[in-house]
């Protein structure tokens, strides 16, 4: 299975970074019917048919990792581009 692994530095406080990821998760749920759940205060897991992953919020970095199933494999480049764009938008 293809995987995605993106890290982006940030300068937000833990509370601010968590709030940003909450907003992103709400959009993912609305737009893509993704199930999301905080595993602890720093890691949000997400899943739907064909994709699963995590968004880990560190003190100075956000780390997105995902595994793509066969359905989403051909879209890997587009998915990575959109993740990078959103991270730049919210954490630049």
TrEMBL record:
InterPro entries: PHA_gran_rgn. It holds the Pfam family PHA_gran_rgn. NCBIfam families: PHA_gran_rgn. This is Polyhydroxyalkanoic acid system family protein. It comes from Dyella humi.
